[in-house]
Design goal:
The protein is α/β, with parallel strands linked by helices. It is built from 13 helices and twelve strands.
């Protein structure tokens, strides 16, 4: 029996299910968590969706997100009522926040598409060929014959759309379009998703972009682009860290840039580092070196430091050496 079928079997025999996302939630994670909860409830399963972190404002624009996702503290004293935990889009246990310390008390299944996944659950369906965890959730709900409505279909498509860069990234294969088309036939509204994600930028974010561009640095003959976002920069425009755009995609879009890096200060002494590559550099290897993870073209890690300048230089030195080695291996 394949891992997906094992997970379906566990779902069918469970009555009260806890569905868990990861810290620093993105579109794929939020989409997967909400879609799984809404879909399983259509099968008369009792479900609770939890993310142990603040959800960015741009995702709270979707009504189901506000309605369905709870903070972990609100259910921490009621964990004994659940008979199954489904973890979505998390590559390692530290990615699920305080929920990590309760893993051993549950039957845990994991659904994820990160190649750096540590397979920490009892049943692990990890497929890095999938574009997104949301696409994997669609496969499970479809196999369970869930009756999609427009709201569920749109929420499920959200994760696929955002994790493929609205069908621009290298993870956009034939099956992605087939699954997106199937969700569209079920009522998913890609225009609605695009309007909320791409066409509702707060003016404060554009002011911040101006500062980010002024701090932009290029290395290795323009192949590396990096910048830093500090708490002071965010505060100047009334932006809180969870709602701060990293703009790492904009750095990657610069001609001749292969690797883009954004160091964002999330709290004093803690930085989140976003990595993106364009064609050949596997940034997941960089992220793993610094304790993080991700995909070949999109990855990240956290950096705890009170000497950010020297820490940034250490990261840049490693990436520069890494890219030179990668280029040499391509030539050979």
């Amino acid at each position: 029996m394949q891992e997906k079928e094992k997970i379906i079997e566990e779902i069918l025999k469970s009555n009260n299910i806890l569905i868990v996302g990861h810290i620093l939630p993105d579109g794929d994670d939020v989409s997967s968590v909400v879609s799984m909860k809404s879909g399983l409830e259509k099968l008369n399963k009792k479900c609770t969706a939890v993310i142990d972190d603040d959800i960015p404002e741009y995702l709270l624009q979707f009504p189901l997100v506000k309605k369905e996702i709870k903070d972990f503290s609100s259910i921490e004293n009621d964990l004994n009522k659940f008979d199954l935990m489904i973890v979505l889009d998390a590559s390692s246990t530290d990615r699920i926040g305080k929920i990590e310390k309760y893993l051993e008390f549950f039957k845990v299944v994991l659904i994820d598409h990160h190649a750096t996944n540590t397979h920490f659950a009892d049943i692990n369906w990890v497929d890095f060929k999938m574009s997104s965890t949301a696409q994997m959730v669609y496969r499970i709900l479809n196999d369970l014959n869930v009756d999609y409505d427009e709201e569920l279909a749109t929420m499920n498509l959200l994760g696929i759309a955002t994790d493929t860069g609205f069908f621009r990234y290298q993870n956009t294969g034939t099956q992605v379009f087939k699954d997106a088309a199937a969700l569209t036939e079920k009522g998913a509204n890609i225009s609605y998703i695009a309007n909320l994600i791409l066409d509702s930028t707060p003016i404060e974010h554009l002011y911040l972009l101006k500062d980010i561009i002024s701090n932009l640095q290029l290395l290795l003959n323009g192949q590396i682009a990096y910048t830093t976002i500090t708490l002071d920069m965010l505060s100047a425009y009334g932006i809180i860290p969870k709602d701060a755009p990293s703009f790492v995609e904009k750095l990657r879009s610069i001609r001749n840039v292969e690797v883009a890096i954004v160091f964002q200060e999330y709290e004093r002494g803690l930085y989140h580092v976003s990595l993106r590559s364009k064609e050949w550099a596997d940034v997941s290897k960089i992220a793993v070196h610094f304790g993080g993870g991700g995909h070949p073209r999109a990855a990240g890690f956290s950096l705890k430091t009170d000497k950010i300048k020297s820490s940034i230089q250490e990261v840049l030195d490693f990436i520069t050496k890494f890219m030179k080695n990668e280029e040499n291996s391509k030539i050979l």
